[in-house]
């Protein structure tokens, strides 16, 4: 399989993914607003905020919390 074949396959997969998202936009939005998504996002965002605060020595804790809160509003149901 040559580079052109790999490029063509990647383009086909990207097109299929785009069509899937377009065809299932309502279901995807429902999944992002679910209780399960809320729990997962809280764990991920909390861990990322903790890491950012650890790396920066807490110097930007307020900004980190603002970003975490804004992202949390976009995912889940709380």
Give an overview of the whole structure.
Helices cover 83% and strands 0% of the residues. By secondary structure, the chain is mainly alpha-helical. The chain folds into two domains: 1-32; 34-78, no CATH class. Helix 3 runs antiparallel to helix 4 (61-74).
Q: What share of residues are in beta strands?
A: under 5%
Shape descriptor: flat
Question: Which residues form runs of ≥5 with pLDDT under 50?
Answer: none
Give the class from helix and strand content and strand pairing.
mainly alpha
Q: What's this entry about, in short?
A:
With 78 residues, the protein is mostly helical. It is 83% helix and 0% strand. It folds into two domains: 1-32; 34-78, no CATH class.
Structure keywords:
2 domains, mainly alpha, flat, 4 helices, single chain
Write the layout of secondary structure elements.
Elements lengths: L2 H21 L1 H8 L2 H22 L4 H14 L4
Helix pairs in contact: 3-4
